[in-house]
Amino acid sequence: MYEILRREKWQDVLYSMWLKAPHIARAAQPGQFVILMTDEKGERIPLTIADIDREEGWIQIVFQIVGKTTTKLAQMNEGDELYAFVGPLGKPSEIDKYGTVVTIGGGTGIACVYPITKALKEAGNRVITIIGARTKDLIIMEDEMRKASTELLVTTDDGSYVRKGFVTDVLDEVLQREKNVRKVWAVGPAIMMKVICDVTKPYNVETIACLNAVMVDGTGMCGSCRVTVDGETKLTCVDGPEFNGHLVDWPEFLNRLLKYDQQEKQSLEIYNESLEAEG
Ligand code: NAD
Ligand code: FES
């Protein structure tokens, strides 16, 4: 069983958990994800690994309450056990010595870009990291990111912390300033990753997007996570989750994400009503 070793509420709907999973911690690489089930009847949800301790045998996840399963997960406490926990899944990030690279985390995506950033710096790269959130309180893991990067740039949509603007505004300035950026990693909302690709394209800088597709089995069997990359159908769970963002069919990807919005909302409403009925 997979015990919740530590649980922290970071914001209204933002949580972090440290889960005991020695075999996953031993094998996991930056960029990979896990799929978990809170209970036997629950759905399977994919979550990117935010941190790993191989010796202590835990992995850290960071999640936002967006539907029924994340609501249930947030209600679990330290000492509780998850029903199922599978991983590590997906292909690891391609960590190499490139020179100067930029990593970007938007919102909860900051947690997911952290292990990639750390690994790139350890591999000898000069890593410029950009993190952004809607407002000051939603900037997470700032200290960890500062340690993991060569230079950390922070921005908020509303200007409540450091500076005002999207991560893409900061990225444009970095690309104007730095003439030798070799590669960019983007993790966050799909629209952010799409706009990042629009920004890097004229500079001809390879850009890796970590696609948060809708997943069911996570093993390449159901097809729900399919995405078109360079005209070919790929499965995010086994061929990704990282892809060359300049080759992703973004309009199709954004549409597919919206497809399940209504069902997700309905499922959450039914769950909340059942909780109210239980008193
Ligand atoms: P958010 O909507 O608050 O956006 C975070 C940041 O992204 C913003 O502060 C801004 O800097 C940037 N951004 C947003 N819209 C933009 C636009 N149109 N143009 C340029 N930049 C833009 O993020 P949130 O509420 O924390 O949501 C997190 C999202 O990230 C969820 O959709 C979740 O699915 C996704 N996510 C993805 C991954 C992944 O692996 N790709 C991992 C974790 C979370
Ligand atoms: Fe089913 Fe990827 S989640 S094929």
> What is the helix content?
25-40%
Question: Can you say what the CATH homologous superfamily of the largest domain is?
Answer: Nucleotide-binding domain of ferredoxin-NADP reductase (FNR) module
Described by the principal axes of the CA atoms, the overall outline is globular
Number of domains: 2
Architecture overview:
Strand 9 (126-133), helix 4 (142-148) and strand 10 (151-156) form a beta-alpha-beta unit. The strands form three sheets. Strands 6-1-2-5-4-3-7 form a seven-stranded antiparallel beta sheet. The protein folds into two domains: 2-89, Beta Barrel (Elongation Factor Tu (Ef-tu), domain 3); 100-257, Nucleotide-binding domain of ferredoxin-NADP reductase (FNR) module (Rossmann fold). It has helices at residues 22-27, 68-74, 109-122, 142-148, 167-177, 190-200, 236-239, 250-259, 261-278; strands at 2-11, 14-20, 33-37, 45-53, 58-64, 81-82, 84-89, 100-106, 126-133, 151-156, 181-187, 206-210, 226-229, 232-235, 242-244. The model has no long low-confidence stretch (mean pLDDT 92). It has nine helices and 15 strands. By secondary structure, the chain is α/β, with parallel strands linked by helices. The relative contact order is 0.13. FE2/S2 (inorganic) cluster (FES) binds at residues 215-218, 220-225, 235, 237.
